Request: fold
Amino acid sequence: MFNLILASKSKIRQKILKENGLNFEVVPSNIDEEPVKESLISEGASPELISKNLAELKANKVSQLNDGKMVLGADSIIDLNNEVISKPNDRNEAMNILEKLNGKSHYLISSVCISKNGTMVWNHTDKAKLKMKNFKKIELENYLSKISDEKLYSYNVYQIEDEGKNLFEKIVGDKNTIMGLPIKNIKEYLKNL
Reply:
């Protein structure tokens, strides 16, 4: 398989790549996503377009510094009725997000982009629909208390591969998409090269 550079520190994305037999090295893009996201939101961009642009920005940035190598950038966002919900900065924000999603359906959008020599050569966006169960506030607080800071700030308010799966009444979509990396599409693209 190909040697890739993953433009992300995400442990779960690294795990998915390893489990699928892909060789890669990690070179985080260290992009400050919030100003980009805010700018796109103010321009009326859809959640899908925001996710795609962020994945492309990350891949292109790392790709510019690594001539000839294929760089994989990824981004995931929560879309609640066209409102983009970002990762929490603290536990209060995490609780607010959980209360917003409580009892509702939302989309988890994951975009991936492969860039070479500073230019996107391929991209894909996938989304899954999740319906959260209805919880009392104390139950949400108990759930949050079980999640480490590292996981909370890295992966947003739920980890579908862990405690987070118990939050949902219904999940329609690919588990890897929900975890931030639609791997089937990436492997298909690489296989066809």
In short: The chain has eight helices and seven strands.
